[in-house]
Amino acid sequence: MRWGLSPELVRSLAARLRSFWQRYRMCFRTQTRDGGEYAFDYLSGQLRLESKRTFANLARTAAVSEQNMQHFMSNSPWSAQAVFLQVLAEISGTPALQQGGLLVLDESAEAKSGDQSVGAARQHNGRLGKVDMSQVGTFLAYVNGPVWTWIDGELFLPEAWFAPDKADLRKRLGIPEQRKFATKVDLGWQMIQWVKEHGLPFEALLCDDLYGRAKWFRAALHDAGIIYMADVPANTQVYLERPVIAVPEKPRAPGPMPHVPHILSAPPPVTVADVAHDRETVRQEIMVRTTERGTISGPFAFQRVWTIGDNGWERAEWLVIRWEANDTCTYSLSNAPSDVTHERLALLKCSRYFGERSHQDAKSEAGWDDLQARRYRAWEHHLALTVLASWFVAQTKLEWAQRSQRDPDLAEQFAVDVLPALSMANVRALLRSVMPLPELTPEEATRQVVKHLVNRTRSRKSRMGKHARSP
Questions:
Q1: Residues in Cβ contact with 374 at an 8 Å cutoff, skipping those fewer than 6 apart
Q2: Which of 104, 175, 270, 322 supports an S-S bond with 170, CB 3.0-4.6 Å?
Q3: What count of other Cβ atoms lies within 10 Å of the Cβ of residue 260?
């Protein structure tokens, strides 16, 4: 009770999950079927199983047909977009989340053993730190104080996937015909526009240098009225004084009238790394926030700079420099107002951490990493149910904190400023206590093992047959 975990709240967790799912049940209906129960089985399995949350294991946990679960995830035409829309509506309708929301745009790669899974190709895998056979998704997370959750995502399809020789594979894996090649930055911008159009309240967009280095992307955010804090590489060029850019006057010599803006006068550009190492750059010690692990603070520098876009525009931006523990620097550009406080800029720069937390929770706690399906629709459906699992836990943590306050003496007892919040792992452990995983009888376990052996035998026979037919 002292930790805000009343027995009533814990005992109600199973009913809470069922009630949560009921609000989304219509999202899983098609013209011919109601797949709602399969969605509940999948969602509850994601939250209760510790590992290997494959379609087959999730079906066995719920005692439903593996074939039916496979069809529900890989073939049934229910709309993942409908799930995302309702999550946005619930976030927008939560009074405690009306202010302070941030969007975090990031990508994540999953290693693949072959190129027959949708989107798989040799491409950069940030988790491995090298180019390898991988499947890459671009994800949008919502962050607001103790709340963080995925809200949308898009599968990145490398340009080679749209070559004519891939037409049969695209059709076999269910890639929509209208899907065209788009970069990760293009996909990110599409998602940001979509959530903005549907009224999600947020105050800024945070992203790494894959997106921040794209001048058109920062310009699009600015033109849409979106504040951004975008990481940029160390070699990004900026101006310390405002360059003069205009369309030149018509020359006296015969020729066409100029219409393209040019730099008429400007000081030499410098890199953001040059600014960091300039002796005149002033470092400020900024306390960013207090966490359960201590106070996050460090040296920052803030410099008003100008950048020039691809179409000749020039814009004043904030250059925010942070020195890390090993004296290396990270750099960000922001279009925040000129009168914004340095404390606010430092807080925005450090808030991408919570987007990373949403990635970690989705992967390790909600089963994102366990996806083994090959089809495009399976990827989208798995994402929709992973978003649901993440939002269920985030919403539970928020509402429990509002309903059941912790004993204020706990902080004094442990001599700390901040008590740790519930983690997704904590909520999952409590859920398993009220929704225990089924225990197999020896006969049921034997049947499952035999079935597994049969499937492995068939797989081996299939592989051997392919080897025998190959030249």
A1: 116, 117, 118, 173
A2: 175
A3: 8
Burial (0-12, 13-18, 19+ Cβ within 10 Å), 55: buried
Residue 465's Cβ-count burial label (10 Å; 0-12, 13-18, 19+) is exposed
User: For residues 110 and 136, what is the distance between their CA atoms, to the nearest angstrom?
Assistant: 6
Q: What is the pLDDT of residues 375-414, one digit of tens each?
A: 999 999 999 999 999 999 999 999 998 888 888 888 788 8
Our measurement of the distance from residue 301's CA atom to the centroid of its chain's CA atoms, rounded to an integer in Å, reads 28
Q: And the tokens for 434?
A: 């009220």
pLDDT 10s digits, 83-111: 999 999 999 999 999 999 999 999 998 88
pTM score of the predicted model: 0.90
Residue type, 401: A
Contacts of 63 (CB under 8 A, 6+ apart): 438
Q: What string of DSSP letters covers 253-286? A: SSSPPP-S-EEEE-PPPEEHHHHHH-TTPPPEEE
